[in-house]
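retry 2 of 3: previous attempt timed out while embedding 3-isopropylmalic acid. Reduced batch size to 1 and resubmitted. Inputs unchanged:
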Amino acid sequence: MQAKIVTLPGDGVGPEVIAGAVRVLQAVAQQAGHTFSFEEALIGGCAIDAAGDPLPDETLRACEGADAVLLGAVGGPQWSDPTAPVRPEQGLLRLRQHFDLFANLRPVKAYPALAGFAPLRADLLADVDILVVRELTSGIYFGPRQEQGDGDSAWDTMLYTVEQVRRVAHVAFRAARERRGQVASLDKANVLASMRLWRRTVTDVGREYPDVALEHVLVDAAAMHLLRNPARFDVVLAGNMFGDILSDEISVLAGSLGMLPSASLGNGTFGVYEPIHGSAPDIAGQGIANPVGTILSAALLLRHSLGLDAEARAVERAVEAALDAGARTADLAPDRGSALSTAAFTDAVLSHLEQVPLRG
Ligand code: IPM
Ligand code: MG
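retry 2 succeeded.
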């Protein structure tokens, strides 16, 4: 097949991890006989520097003409002045909003090879396989706000409509059907009106999926249960901000924030794929960032936007095989001396990918 992929490397370690993932996609294309074309565009701080806008029109037009977008990370200390009128993160939020990418899928797996390294006990990590479905284009991120005023107050609004909750709830229930048939919906219905609407709406949608078990968990308690007993969770459905916070929290189950991929999807097959980690300015430019989150995001791109499930699984298995064989980037290595660079880790993944037959 032919596919057009736009890459938005962004800031910090973004370009380094994108380079690794593009090499993996190119290898997949070559092995399976596909033609992927790549076009690079600006987003975030580098776009502010070059064009005064974290999401230039040119970038939006390029994305509109693509089948999928692979994004690195945005942000950095040079653009973090709280009084600045434009910030890198606005580019990412506008991109999600422009394409109405309301469902953010964040799979979290604990890899047996990393069990000894993760900060949680190995017995708690056995069988951890969670899919976070985070609502991505509404809630407190996009509600009415007042930033300036008289300088003595500022506010954001957590606003949800029934339709905004319904559509993301359907995504969660459909995903659960393909998995272990459970949805845990997180909210704060004991305090917030918007979260009572969330709970009521998820319950309503759940009636259409009698084969899926639904439980409602208060988000504060969920933050504890997700670490105390992570294996009991299958699909975790959450609003925009709760999903943001808890997905960083449970990245410790996977050993490192650098491991987790994400897919941001709307109603069609188009999607934006990005690791959940940030631009990591402290290690940028050193070639030591963990590319796994971005490589696994490329796998999600193959699966969700291009319909290439076998190829996606081949990439996922190659990552796992590289980890099983002991390949580690610095974030996963107890002594940094034994750690592989971003490029060397990608080489390890590619060598395992070559062993998977993808054609015929
Ligand atoms: C994420 C990030 C973003 C978010 C930031 C960079 C705007 O933390 O994708 O999880 O809050 O959604
Ligand atoms: Mg986040």
